[in-house]
Amino acid sequence: MPQTRKIHNDFIILLRKTFSHDPMGVTTKNVVKSLKGVATKNVLHDSKGGAHEKRSVTTLWPPHSLTREEPRTLNPCLEVRRKINVTTCGGFVNASSASIEFQLGGSIRADMRCVWIVQAPSSAQRFSLVASGLKETDGLYVTPLARAAPTQKLGTLGQNIILQSKSVLITLIVGHAPTLGFKMEYYASGSNVNPDITGVEILTTAKGNLTYPRNGGIYRPYETAVFPIAPSVPGQPTIRFTRMDLESDSLCAYDWIRIYNWFEDDYRQVARFCGNTIPTSATFQDGVGFVLFSSDSSVFKTGFDFQYE
Ligand SMILES: [Ca+2]
């Protein structure tokens, strides 16, 4: 390289070092912006702190004293944050957006059942499939818990499904042959509302039991508690209630329990009961179902127990 050219290049490098706006080498891409110089953590807007994922505090640069004031319209919590990514078979996510990535690049056993429940602080949610090795004989389904619309199959990449429901069940139904994994995402959509789920447990063991409320006492007003049963070893679980103590009325219109059984691409209600009535047992012949409990504004009892195997 000619000497003059080298001097020129060195000068350019010196200029860049001297006037760089990023002397720490920190890229601004993932920096959480702050409003009025207040440190902002990578927190989610979870009204109940339901998404338990721990996050580190994102480093701020430049220091607050050097941060120029941001436009007032910015929400300090909604700036760049890492999205929750669930990778287990089943789970509960309480956040405005998340991805569910199950065995992507790997295989899933035949007849597998997984249920995720997602809840966003909004009146609707949008779902899309990002990557999929699922076959035609498999299915990934979204079911609004509010039951305002039927279950829909999320089967095509790029497809968007919007459901008018604060909380949604996502059900994986694998056919009678092993298959490959997938990745899907959901986003809050619509107007802001308070979340509706007051209790949730996803039962994945081969057998088990549940008492609600979990710590005894009486249940609360306006409960919506949901308990999917989807054993991770495929089977046909039978559910039996062993104790019932709900407000009683002839139509079960106030406080009630419903049992839903997966059958032909949707959840079908197989029982609705209240008071002290112990219902007959129900078998989930296709390997998955759920219990839904709801209470109204007055008269509260001690709840219920059930077991399944
Ligand atoms: Ca009641």
Automatic annotation (TrEMBL):
Pfam families: CUB (PF00431). Gene3D superfamilies: Spermadhesin, CUB domain. PROSITE patterns: CUB. It comes from Folsomia candida. Residues 198-309 form the CUB domain. CDD domains: CUB. This is Dorsal-ventral patterning protein tolloid. Keywords: Disulfide bond, Repeat. Coiled coil: none annotated. It comes from the Eukaryota.
